[in-house]
Amino acid sequence: MKNISIIKNIIIILLYCIITFSLSTNASAQDLSYNLSSTIIPVVSDKAGILTDYEEVTILNKFTELRDASSFQFIFMTVTDTDEYTRGNELEAMYNMHVDDLYGTGTVLFLISTDNDNLICEVQAYNDAKYILSHEVCSYISRELENYIKEGNYFDGVMKFFDYYNQANDGTLTISDESKQADYNSIFSYMKTRITFTILLATVSLLITALLYVFIFALKNKSPKTNAPGKIPQESDIFVGNISYKYKLTSDRITYIRSRVTK
Prior knowledge:
Elements (H helix, E strand, L loop, with lengths): L1 H22 L19 E4 L6 H18 L1 E8 L10 H9 L7 E8 L6 E8 L7 H16 L3 H17 L6 H46 L12 E6 L2 E8 L2 E9 L2
Parallel strand pairs: 1-2, 2-3
Antiparallel strand pairs: 3-4, 5-6, 6-7
Helix pairs in contact: 1-6, 2-5, 4-5
């Protein structure tokens, strides 16, 4: 029984690990940490080294202008890989990791990854910033800027972001029907991938659980039974000195005892 209890605990731990792994989006990758302050100073972190000093300062100044006009926190980062993040959830993970340290009425995250296997150019907005940069607007801007990133025109692409932001802010940004459809297709593809992964994970979990329970059942049946009471004869005599005690059992309980003196 002790072995069975241990195996059951192993099953629970295994299932917990599988579920935790599937839901985890907060893993850290190539030093994506960024310094934040209560004065909501914009962050420009060029880990990929794709900007010159002049370009970096220019971008920081532009973000500072947007900060002064909106009170939003702007965070712009470039990296060479995001391998340890769940693909497609990089910015969500970064936001969740630092949400308690963010200041301002809204937050705008802008990420560029130059990894050839996972090229990323993505913009996301949170809290009040979503009223200017809605999901649809962020998706549109990300797709448009990705064309610059693919060609290696990083600085031009980032500067184009400010044009799109100002257009979204004053209501003049126009998103074509083709772009909207592309956004819907992207969402559908993402949801399809997540659902497929979830079903596969659930199937594997159930299979592992079934196999372990089969193993437990087989182990239980093979285990020798201990502490089982010995079979007592249904009717017998017990001699204590010259006195004979006769007893009879019914359902392993003594129903009567009769004694007699022997010569």
